[in-house]
Amino acid sequence: MDNYVDSSINNLSNNSDEFEHLNIKIDTIFKQDVKALLGFLKAKVSNSKDLDRERKFAHNRGLLDDNDFPTKKAINILEILFKLFPDIDFTNIDTIKLIDITEIVDKINQIMENNNQIINTELTCINSESENGNSINSDKEVLTCINSESENGNSINSDKEVLTCINSELIQVNNINNMDKIKSSLNKIKEDIRKLCNELLKKEGVNKSSMPKDAFYDCINWLLNSSLDFRYIEENIKDLNASLSAYKVTISYLKKIQWIYEDTTGLYKLNVDKFLSDLNRSGLLKKVEYEKKIATNDYDEETRDRMAGAYEKLVRGFHVDDSGVFRFEFGDGSLDQYYVSSYLLNNTWHVIDRLQRNYFLNWRKEHVSAIECNNTVLFPLLKCHFTNIPMTAKEYIQYPDPSKVGKLIVVEAEVLETSPIKNIVICAEYGEEDNPHIEYFDLNTKKIPEVIKIGSGEDKRELKLIRKYIHTVQEFLLQQPIDELNPKEEPKPIKAVWVGAEGLFDVGAKVRVVGILDIDKSDRPISPYLIRILSIEEIEEFSHGLSEEDIKIAKDYYNSKKGDLFRIADDLFPNIVDNELLKVAVLLQLCNVESEPRDGFNWNIHILMVGDPSTGKSRVLKRVYTLFPNNQYVDLTNATQAGLVGAIEKIKGYLGEVYSFRRGAIPKANGAVLCLDEKNKDTYKYFNTSMEDGFTKVNKVGRDIHLKTNCAYLWGCNPKREKFDLDRTLTEQIDIPDSILSRFDLIFALFNNVKEKEDIKQIVRAIKGGNEKGYVDEDVLKRYILYARTFNPVISDEIDDFIVDYYYELQGKSEMIDARVIKSLLKLVRAIAKAHLRNEVKKEDFELAKQIYQKYLDTILYDPESGVYDFGKLGKATKSERDKMDKLIEIIKELSELRDDNLAPQVDIEERAKELLGIEGHEVERLLNKLKGEGEVYNPRAGMWGLT
């Protein structure tokens, strides 16, 4: 503000006529208007607490309309400010934020002093015109007030002989007189007015333009008498003098030269001051008694439509491109763009509806000739594309803001249900083919009438249906994403309708919706509100949302632990003693969580904890469950299909009854950790495809529902006899099918062994929460884990070779090993690199992965009898048991062939087994029962066995 040049101010002060055409004088009233306008703009862009007060002040001075849009008066003031202060950019938001309004006003005072302008806010006039010989010069629209000093013979300087004061009452009377003259002589001067419009358009940069005659005459006549209602034009176009497009162009051009403005009710009104000022300068006010005709040529409708589109783009900042997409980019720092953005945000429904109708009419004009009567026509609907949408438009659909009804909103939501894509009637044509009446319908219209009645009185008539225009529509049921809700908060669904639907979204998908908030007027709304979708896209299931400060905290924490994952795991589980590799493995699981398979591979790590009671399994589960809001916890002893996968609910919507799918814990945990406690054989069928492929299919009420369930499984359970036996298979002890057990990357056996006194003391301290390690702020741990998830490490050929060598080595000392081992090792090395906040896997990462996996092999899969890692222990029998069972089948076959009933006595089987295999009778009976369970032998009566 210190860069003002006094000489430039003086130059402007000597040229006050420069602003006369704006009908604003640099006086005290102007100064107050400047303070009001700049005060509002500064409060608006700075989001000041004084915004309401400044808005009211500016509105009362006629500077703002009801939508915070600047009036013509405000624009004129800004134009003068630009000329007074050329070094200040009054359209830049950053400049407005820093502007010193007091200094601006002081400079205006200086201009007033330099001009020696005498300001009199209470204009006084001599009561008797006859006594002073003064008269009101209506042609010049001024009131000359004689200074009392003139009576004493004092003369006024020739440059300032009179003080000209604008008297609002007299101007108003004078304007009314002029308007009456124009109305009475309109037929004589209407062509002159049209010529003036064309000249003004050229000055505005609209070249080769010409007002459509009939439409222009009608519009001027309506404006002179009251106002112009475009809805009246649309409804009565058949009885008017011009085409609909001609009226559109006329209104566009009248707005361009600022002869009309649109009020809050949608009516166009005449800007009387600007209209009369232009007519006066052109000399038309002096020619109202004369008739003069000037011939001009009209352009074709295509040219006028193109010009109207160019105007829309230029003035409002938004337009529809050639491919039928409405594109708008919010905000570029300038005030004019700020106002356009504000207008669009606050009048979205009005703007979009108008553009949709215009787009339909243009499409219809081009294609209607090829459409037969009585047809139902599917036409392309306008698409919408927005960029840089302000944060203020983001809405929390759990509790929608009623003040945003009809306005643009952006929501992030989860898809609970989608209806099939159907066709719905958007509008219909009635009456005559050459000049039809178009009737538009909303979503609540149940039946399209075959006959409609329009008009009133003598003009009332019936019109028959010609054709219907339809488009696709789809209904959604949305809810706030689980990770944005309080764990105890119940989601509140909301309906959304997508007219112009063209895509499919899976139930459970997380989507970003740009739309318009509306009132739900259906029969049985589940929410008072409805979202009219303008655009919808699927987004990442889990948003890390880390700021630079969050990343710094995560890095500092990792460095404070010197990159030691065991120390970090201790911070994660401060109340659990021992089981260090398990704690590290769960830390890796948390760091490696992903919401979708990457490169066709599910990278999520699945961990099973099985062992003695009171070994910390439940504490691990609950710690992980409470760490992030989208982690899920299920007690399988009471679980049902509805709780695990979801349940179908019938919802009444615009498109009839739709089936809403309420998601269960597995799809809710997509992109998170699913914590399962204990066992339930009725639930196992829901886990297979989810663990392997990251999705689950459900078939209900004739519909296939595809659910994203790409979650990491953390499962804890106790063995049947409350004590884990390393010599028996897992299936025997926990009754989980081998098809599921084989999908776990790591299985940890936990034992409640006898402990030394010092170990017991550590357990006591851990349970009390007073262990010597101390606690780390949970938010710090969360930032670290979330930051680790953002990495995508590359597994080099060198690491591949390490895994190949290790797997090759395992093959030589393992039974029934398969390629799932390789998958698990790849997951582990990748997770370790992510936990180290790296995008590359190093050799030491492989060494730690090998150490963790070796623990799984040694405790769960090692068979002391055969001395190998037997992956058969995940099933119903180990390799050594399978060999013995095969031998028992041979014994039964041999003994049964010696008898007529083809059965073998158990006593003889036990005797031969002890002789050949060295096993006792109780072991023989156990193995026989296993064979019976697998359907290979049967037991028709006690003590007798046969082959099936």
UniProtKB/TrEMBL annotation:
Pfam families: MCM, MCM_lid. PROSITE patterns: MCM_2. Signal peptide: none annotated. InterPro entries: MCM (IPR031327), MCM_dom (IPR001208), MCM_lid (IPR041562), P-loop_NTPase (IPR027417), WH-like_DNA-bd_sf (IPR036388). Gene3D superfamilies: P-loop containing nucleotide triphosphate hydrolases, Winged helix-like DNA-binding domain superfamily/Winged helix DNA-binding domain. Keywords: ATP-binding, DNA replication, DNA-binding, Nucleotide-binding, Plasmid. This is MCM family protein. It comes from Methanocaldococcus vulcanius (strain ATCC 700851 / DSM 12094 / M7).
